[in-house]
Each structure stands twice: as structure tokens, then as C-alpha cells.
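Section 4.2 – Deliverable D4.2 (structural model, holo form)

The reporting period included a commitment to supply a predicted holo structure for the target in complex with protoporphyrin IX containing FE. Inputs used:
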Amino acid sequence: MSPTPSPSDGSELIDPVVYERDGQPHEAWTQLRRSDPVHHFDPPGFGPFWAITRHADIREISRRPDTFGNAAGIVLLTAEQRAEGRVGELAQMRTIIEMDPPEHRDFRRVGSPWFTPNGMKRIDAAIDQAARELVDGLASSGGEGECDFATDVAARHPLRILSTILGVPRDQEDDILRLTNQLFAADDPELQRAADRQQAMRDLGAELYGIFAKIIDDRRAAPRDDLASLLANGRVNGELMGPMETFGYYLITFTAGHDTTKNSIVGGMRALVENPGELEKLRRDPDLVVPEVEEIVRWTTPVNYMKRTALCDVEVAGHAIREGEELLLFYASANRDEDVFEEPFRFRIDRDPNPHLGFGHGEHFCLGANLARRSQRALFRELATRLEHVELAGEPEHIRSNFVVGLKHLPLRYRIAVGA
Ligand code: HEM
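Output (C-alpha cells):
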């Protein structure tokens, strides 16, 4: 039997246009996991990289931050981006996802107390209220209607919650949403801001900095019991964090928290619509939202990959990797690994165990995982208890992005119980 051919030059793993057209390249990953799970690619237009596609190898690499670092960046750059570098405020900004230990641990400690299940109790009520208001909004036309679930619901939920914890005034929520879209979906023409990418990034940085600098000043002058105040007054080694580090913390919280949660929610909803048996299970037992949300994160894997850079010569699964070479940890592939998941290509809301890597692993494990879980559970519980009928009302459309991936449009037709 001839070996299964591996993908040609790796373009299909990272070309944003492929993601827009077809979604995540699961067929190519499945072949790689079987035949060549640590494979070196050099696709045109990008830098060379090692594709890491198996669950076990991604876990192992994630546990060794002293050997596989983040400081050189977490996304694979195009040749053009490499030449440009970052500009304006965004160039000076420092975020924990691009730090290595020991510095990373010092900075992570500033925000982490707020994200524990205990620390988050203070926003429990606000999360439930945000979910109820959104579902009330769907029911406002008498209980029957059509919506674009991506923009009308999935994007609004994390936006309201993140704005609340970061102190963004309600009348600036839409500005933040627009800017975040432009920052993250930089490859998607529908979400982009201008043809001149350099100038666009400079303006974007300045605009975001303008919004957050005001909040930081305000919370330094008059701290409250919120994350915004914790970050604005955060100290590292006894010193108040610098303006660019504080700005970086706000921005990473907002950007890392918004599109990821949105894409998880919208992909989860699509999976429920396409698997009516699973939706029925959830309706009958809304407590299943706990495993359901884990399954949604596994199924959608909104953070498609993270990049690591080898800090010395090292071996991974028998392959010699040289210092300075880049590795892409394809979480979305790990989350379909047949060696770990039974029937990985089936969406099962009560999957147990579910050791998915959707929130990463080890040193940089998602700081907002508890918030992401809690906010999605609130929304899906509200939907499960009130949704009477739901079906697609048009074709779902993927975002043109290879990094934070998912749907930008999900047209739905529904009937929903009008709230009490
Ligand atoms: C479904 C939603 C989310 C997904 C799928 C997700 C996924 C991830 C992944 C894969 C990483 C990298 C982990 C690694 O390298 O091992 C990460 C890091 C991070 N996430 Fe999330 N995330 C989500 C929601 C959030 C939310 C709501 C927040 C904050 C409000 C957040 C804040 C962060 C931060 C700050 C980091 C960097 C942590 C560090 O470097 O130590 N994320 N996330």
C-alpha cells in the first residue's frame, strides 16, 4: 500500500483564503497525523514552519517554555509582514502571550487572581443578565424571526461582558468591536479598515490606545472592584506596570477574549442546528451546558494554532529542529486526534472525558478560560430553555483568517419563548 501523500507545500494549512472557502483543513491534518505528524513546510509567501498536528506532541512542547518560546511572536507572518514589522503603539505594546518565563509568570500573576472561579463570582449576575437580554432581544419580534446569529448574538455577548470588566463605557462598545475586528481579522476585506496596511495599523493602535488610556487614568485616580482597576494599578516586582505594558494587558484581554468566544458561540450554534438530536438533549437537560461548552470549544477550536520558536537545537518526535525554527501547534488538529478522542468527527455535547487543547496547555494556558466557559454556559442555557425551533436561513460564511477562525455570518430562522 502506498503511503498517503502529505499536503503539497503546506499552503492549505495557513492560507487565509482556504479557510474562508473551506473552513479548517481537517482532511490535510488527518493525513498528517497519520503519516507525518511533525512535518517541515516552506510555503510561498510565508516563512518556513514545522506543522505539529498530534495531541501528544503539542502537549509536550507546551510544557517546555524554556525550550519553545513565545517572545519571537505567536503567529506565522507573511513575507510582507516580516518586512514591515509592527508600527505605532502596537509595536511598543507588550503582552503576556509574547513573554517567556520568568517574566511571563510575573506579569501573568497581575491579572490571574481575577480570573479564578472565585474571583469571577463578582460578575456572575452581570453575565446572566447579558445572556437574558440578548435572548430577550431575539424574542422581541413576538418570538419568531430571523437573525445573523454571528453579529446579532455571538459577537454581542462577549462584547458586553468584556466591556463591563474592562470599564469600557457602553457608548464605546461598538468602537471597540470595530477596532478588534480590524486587528484580528486583518486578512478579511469585509472587516479590514484601509488598503494601506501600515497606516491602518498605526491608526488602529492610536485609536485603541486612546480608549484604554482614559480608563487607565480613571482607575488609577479612583480604583473600583473590577479587573480594569486591578490592571491599572498592577505591580510587577514592586513597580507599577509601564503604560505600554498596562495597555498591552487591556488589549490582550479584550482581543484574546472577544473573537475567540464569539467564534466558539457561533460555531457551537451551527453545530446544534446541524445536530438536532444534540440540541434536543440540551433542551431536555440544560445542565448539560457544562460538557456542551467543552465540546463546542473542541469542535470549533477558535484559536487554530499558536506559534513557538525553538530556543536551542532540539528533537521532537525524532525530528531534529534547529534553534530559531518556528513550530505551529495546530490545536484544531489535536482536537480531532483519533488516539485521544473517540469518534473525533462527531459533535457530542456529553463527551466525557474531553481533554481538548482548545484553551492551550501549560505555561500560557488561556487566562480567560473560566470566563469563556461561564459566559458561554449562561448563553446556551438561556437558549436551550427558550428556543422552540431553529434552522439555517442562508449559507454560513467563514472569516478569511488562519489564526482566530470561525464564521462571520450565520443566518438563522427561529421561534423562541418570549421571556417572563
Ligand atoms: C472560547 C474562548 C477562548 C479560547 C478558545 C481561547 C484560547 C486560548 C489559547 C489557545 C491560548 C494560548 C494557550 C497556550 O499557548 O497554551 C489563550 C491564551 C490567552 N487567553 Fe484565551 N481563549 C478564549 C477566551 C479568552 C477570554 C474570554 C480571555 C480574557 C478575558 C482570554 C485571555 C487570554 C489570555 C490573556 C491569554 C494569554 C495567556 C498567557 O500567555 O499566559 N481568552 N487563549
